[in-house]
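Write out the 3D structure for:
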Amino acid sequence: MAEPKTPAESPAKGIVARQSSSAEVNAFIEKVRAMTPAASGRGRLIFAMDATMSRQPTWDLALKLQGDMFQAVKDVGGLDVQLVYFRGFNETKASKWIGDPDAVARLMSRVACEGGYTQIQKVLSHARGESAATRVNALVYVGDAMEENIDELAQRAGDLRLLGVPCFMFQEGYDKKAERAFKEIAKLTRGAYCRFDSGSASQLGDLLKAVAVYATGGRKALKDFSQATRSSAGSLLLEQLS
């Protein structure tokens, strides 16, 4: 049996935070550009996160970025979100569908990290079940590790592709096994992958917001958001979409 994950060392302990390269960010935006946006109207997005203990060192920062994502679509409206997280011993929970961004942010703030293994397969299976009942426009996943069978994850990702559910996979840190799995899931679902760490938090936070706005209301919503907030990520995405 594999050893449980231990908290990752913070930069203060000698790990130098590296920024995502411009090529990685541009590749992410190019993936989003190639996708067909949801029609203007009410969208449904599953936001899933790894809440195991290895994420504790940067948990507060991650929660802030994730909360900002939903605040960005507050004025746009039309986005229902379901929060899914896993932690501890086989604990995976999903909230009801929530249309109030403030309520989503409050709900996320009450989640605490606990030791355990990843349960990404359960997340993908849950998304498949939800979308089979009523279409889900996108799945956003934030995590730092992968401790499962990649072929089984690929199978679940293939199911989501058939249902038209793109997965936006955000990786915190530099675990190679997680990177390979997250990229594969993004590719199979026609979604996108991008790295997330303390050095690139601001830029990727903007990308999270832009993706949420784009998935909710298409180009017009993204253009309005970009103009109102002067978001560089939104502007760059609009340039790619033109």
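The longest strand covers residues 79-87.
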